Amino acid sequence: MSDRFAACRDVFAHLNVDRFATVSRRTLLRGLSASALTTTGSFFTRSLWGAPAFLANPFTLGVASGDPTPEGFVLWTKVAPNPLERGGGMPARPVEVKWAVSTRDNMQQVVREGTTVAHPELGHAVHVEVDQLEPERDYFYQFEIGGERSPVGRSRTLPPLGAPVRQVRIGQVGCQSYEDGFFTAYRGVADEQFDFVFHYGDYIYESRMGRSSSPRAAAGEVGEAFTLDDYRYRYSLYQLDPDLQAAHASAPFVVSFDDHEVSNDWAGFWNEAGALAEVFALRRAAAFQAWYEHMPVRKAQLPHGPDVQMYRRLVVGDLIAMNVLDTRQFRLPPACGGDYKRNCAEAFETRRTMLGETQEGWLYDGFKTTRHLWTMLAQQVPMMRIDVAPDPSRSILSMDMWDGATAARDRLFGAIEDSKTGNVIVLSGDIHSNWAGELKKDFFDERSATLGVEFIATSITTNGDGHDIKDNDRKRMAKQPYVKFFNNQRGYACHIVTPACWEVDFRVLDKVTVPGGRISTRMSLVVENGKSAIAQA
Ligand SMILES: [Fe+2]
User: Fold this and answer.
1) Which residues surround ligand 1, an ion (CB under 5 A)?
2) CA of 181 to the centre of ligand 1 (A)
3) Class of domain 168-536
């Protein structure tokens, strides 16, 4: 045990139970009479697991940090001695967890520390919002409970608001189907030591798993997730992976969610299984609770039943306004029943939306009121027109992407134009392949205005090893000249953002179906400040 936590324990030893009881009684006073307090006050004291002890280290799911600001970030862990068991192997009692933030990776020179309560209602997840730190610097953090310490994680604060920024390095990841392969890409992410990592979603897959051909067949068969315990099991299974843990411990994550955190292609309260909206709301609530419990997000992202405030804005000095968008909760049922369709007129209805009216208003107001060199839309499904038919005489579009709501895309492009927002960079995922494309006001007219550039990062594992570009891919690109790059291997994207350029490196793996795949840079592209065009770096 380090001196640091020996000191922590001394400090908190005499505070533990009394401090919690005091808070509980104060809370209680709001709802109960004084006489009720005298009979129930001791109940709250007893409910705290005051002297936790473990047979093995309970930080089995690692540590994470997220949503950085210039002053701090969220710290996350989960107390789960047996994470795949119902309840995580914990008693159904709240318990205190100590945390500390240091400027050194050996956890000497602690600058902030405290104690928080891990509640059984939240699966003993821990979310600490640390503030009062210095901007634009690395910090290290650790948790401790019952004499057991967590691994040490690295996090990093953002530059001061409005301040000039020389360079920021951002990772882009998502789509990590456990049974499709190994998370070697996350080992690469960990080595990058990013300023922060954007996760576009599909952190888990909810579908039935356990096919015998899976490289991870050892995980066994697991039925489709519907209940809170089902979803918790998925997150635990995934977060036991050492490469994923290494990535989380290497840099703060800014997470969103896509469909598979809940159900394939869900849209608002529509779900492909056809459950009534009121019934699907229960599933959404369970899925969102598990998402919150396992993600390094702020209390503002604590779900309220089936609803969660996911969209939010992070600001990186004077360099980037990062709009994290929610393209799932506010949709209508998909055009023409969803999936890939030919000639679907419903996709062109003006009522179609990807963000919903409130979020659209928030985003477009932001275009007018926040002025940064680069405006990032960090979101889930492809925004550019993607015709997957290689045959030039017909087109097939996904109703689950922005192609399924063209009026929503037109409104967004109109807002970008009206507000004269330049240097728009869209980060997306969802289709398990790498794409770079120019967002045209009219995708059928090469000479029409380019309103931004989209970089779609491939999956960490989903769809297995994949391959580089093939003949049919070339035919598709020939039909869509605004698509400047395509690749169908697994990996992640690395963005290097400066005042002069936005550069992206597409890192790919030769294999994910075996451990230890080799990572290489498949392509480096660059967008120059003011150009809205993709060039090779
Ligand atoms: Fe996916």
Assistant:
1) 175, 202, 462
2) 13
3) alpha beta
The whole-chain average pLDDT of the chain stands at 92
State phi, psi for 303 to the nearest 5 degrees: -65, 150
Does the pLDDT at position 42 exceed 50? no
Residue 87 alpha carbon to ligand 1 centre in Å: 28
The pair of structure tokens assigned to 236 is: 């635990």
Instruction: Work out the widest C-alpha separation in the chain, in whole angstroms.
Output: 80
Answer yes or no: CATH 2.60.40.380 is held by domain 63-156.
yes
Q: How far is the CA of 508 from the centre of ligand 1 (A)?
A: 17
- Four-CA torsion 106, 109, 110, 111, nearest 10 degrees: -140
CA-CA distance, 266 to 262, in Å (whole number)? 7
CB-CB neighbours of 6 under 10 Å: 12
* Mean pLDDT of all residues in 16-40: 31
Judge contact between 225 and 287, C-beta under 8 A: yes
Q: Find how far residue 359's CA is from the centre of its chain.
A: 18
pTM as predicted: 0.92
The C-alpha angle 62, 67, 68, rounded to 5 degrees, equals 105
Q: How far is the CA of 130 from the centre of ligand 1 (A)?
A: 32
Local structure of 391: helix, strand or coil = coil
Over residues 414-436, the pLDDT tens digits come to 999 999 999 999 999 999 999 99
Q: What percent of the chain has pLDDT over 90?
A: 91
Tell me how far the alpha carbon of residue 278 lies from the centroid of ligand 1, in angstroms. 26
Q: Which structure tokens are listed for 257?
A: 């969610």
DSSP for residue 336: G
Query: Domain map of the chain by residue range?
Result: 3-38, 63-156, 168-536
63-156 and 168-536: identical CATH topology: no
* CA–CA distances in Å: residue 373 to residues 163, 254, 508: 12, 20, 29
Per-residue CA distances from 398 to 80, 257, 263 (Å): 40, 19, 17
